[in-house]
Amino acid sequence: MGRALWLNGKQGEAVVELQRSIELSPNFALGHYTPVSCTAKVVTALGHRRDDYARELSPFDPLQFAMLARPSVAHVSAWRARRGRDWAVKATGRPNAHAHILAIAAQCLALTHRRDEASKFVAGSAIACRRTTGRLLARVSLRQHTEKLFRRSARQINFDSTP
């Protein structure tokens, strides 16, 4: 319920439901992972700890890709693009990694001056990534400088970064 509320823009209600899910089931990985997505303007150290804990609780979770991609964005936000790139590429190797994850990885590769690798990286999913980049930036709350970095890297690899 919490995730459904979050995806429908009802962050306050989502956090309440997610906290309730953790109270009912303290080992519910998604319950630990999602509240940071609901409330954080920026991914913080708290998000890292919760992501780490969620990954430990559920190492084969179907959303493992997201639990790895969020730290990549946090590293980029903290001016650590190489670390962000490493996390993003790792996220793409997980089952169910979708176009958002591929776009993040491609943009992190571009940010670290690996444009050729970024282009090849998404060769099979370039159309989905191009369509997704703007939506991703519109959906995820990022620091202004982080959004500018992602928009710039999107242009460098010919992704349309407008929503």
Question: Can you tell me about this structure?
Answer:
- There is one protein chain.
- With 163 residues, this protein is mainly α.
- It has a domain at 63-156.
- The chain has helices at 2-7, 11-24, 29-39, 45-57, 64-77, 81-92, 99-111, 115-121, 126-139, 144-156.
- Mean pLDDT is 78; it is low at 40-46.
Strand content bin: under 5%
**How do the SSEs run, as a string of H and E?**
HHHHHHHHHH
The major pleated sheet works out as: none
What is Rg?
15 Å
Helix content: over 70%
Tell me how many strands there are. 0
**Structural class estimated from helices and strands:** mainly alpha
Total count of helical runs of at least 4 residues? 10
Shape: globular
Write the layout of secondary structure elements.
Elements: H1 2-7, H2 11-24, H3 29-39, H4 45-57, H5 64-77, H6 81-92, H7 99-111, H8 115-121, H9 126-139, H10 144-156
Compact overview of the structure:
The chain has 163 residues and is an all-alpha fold. The chain has helices at residues 2-7, 11-24, 29-39, 45-57, 64-77, 81-92, 99-111, 115-121, 126-139, 144-156.
Structural features:
163 residues; mainly alpha; globular
